[in-house]
Amino acid sequence: MDFDTLAQDVLFETIKSLFPLQTESRSIIKQHVWRDRKYVGEMNGSVIVWKGWSANLSHLDFRYRTVFIDRVANVLSIEEKTRLFGWHFAKSSKDMEEFVVMFVLDFPIDAYELILQEGFIPRLMSKVVHACVVVGINEFLSYTAHHWTSQIIRLVILQRLLSRHRKPLDAYEIPLQNLLFRTGYVHTYIVKSGLGLIKLEPPRASGEFGHDLHAIVQHPDINPPFNLGIELYMGAVGYHIQTIPQYIVQYNLKAVIIIAKDDPYNLLQPVFDNLGIESNKIHSLYEISASTKVGVNFLALQQVMIDLDDIRDDIDNLLPRVPKQFGL
Fold first, then answer.
1. Maximum separation of any 2 CA atoms in the chain, in Å
2. Can the peptide bond before residue 224 be classed as cis, meaning omega within 30 degrees of 0?
3. What is the pLDDT of residues 72-97, one digit of tens each?
4. pTM of the model
5. What confidence tens digit (pLDDT) does each residue in 223-234 have?
6. Which of 8, 122, 228, 292 is the most exposed, having the fewest neighbouring CB atoms within 10 Å of its CB?
7. Are 160 and 313 in contact (CB under 8 A)?
8. DSSP string, 135-181
9. Angle at which helices 173-182 and 185-192 cross, to 10°
10. Dihedral angle computed from the Cα positions of residues 172, 174, 176 and 182, in that order, rounded to the nearest 10 degrees
11. Strand partners, 121
12. Third-level CATH fold of 3-164
């Protein structure tokens, strides 16, 4: 059997073992090529190439990440491999013309020794460690897919237990908008503030004019129900200082929640004043008044991240534990 076929079979068997009810297992198995000199190195001015196959398990369960199987020409000196990946990784592939690396990503640096204790090879990167199985190409081809599947399953479970394998929540605004909606975070925040939630719409499509999420809420002291906008910013609010007032006018917003790294109210206030929009800064949605003033409620992005992390841990605690037979 050739490398490409066996690598795909190993990933397929891994998916079937971890997610036995999935019917589209092969659809998440993709071919990839690494060509980053900081990631795989270079020789004589040319970037080394690692080629292989991977399966992004997060498509099946958000708690998992990608598993990789790469075939590598062993052209770097042991000194260069040590500099790039650490001594244990360099030693593991010594004297091989080609080697295969089966690995998972993003363990904290302090997991290095524990990865060794579990029988895997740590690949030391700049700020994280990868857990690997490193074998020569002939050894890889001499075993069945089931043999390597058992090792990769142990890698995946070790990653679930020890690694920082989830993407930072501030990586993308749109996924975070959806997370705020799907986890009920915005719903809960509105209700805990003392308002009644009549309707909360899903996030707008990317590029569509308007605030990110729209709610219709009821204040116990104000009739009728009114519109509430929610805006999320991962970086500086920037030009949105001009667009937020437009959203308020266009959608007749009585208040707006702004989730950002820094409170933008001092920047927004002169823009409001120039447009004749009366506003006031509110620390709770319950402070929204019956007057014509628009309430601006700031939520610190960092605190929202912490809250979502707690929600994730609560979800993890509800899910089944790691089976004992895997020995981790």
1. 78
2. yes
3. 988 888 888 888 888 999 999 888 99
4. 0.52
5. 899 999 999 988
6. 292
7. no
8. EEHHHHHHS-HHHHHHHHHHHHHHHHHH---SPPGGG-HHHHHHHHH
9. 60
10. -150
11. 132
12. Yope Regulator; Chain: A, (3.30.1460)
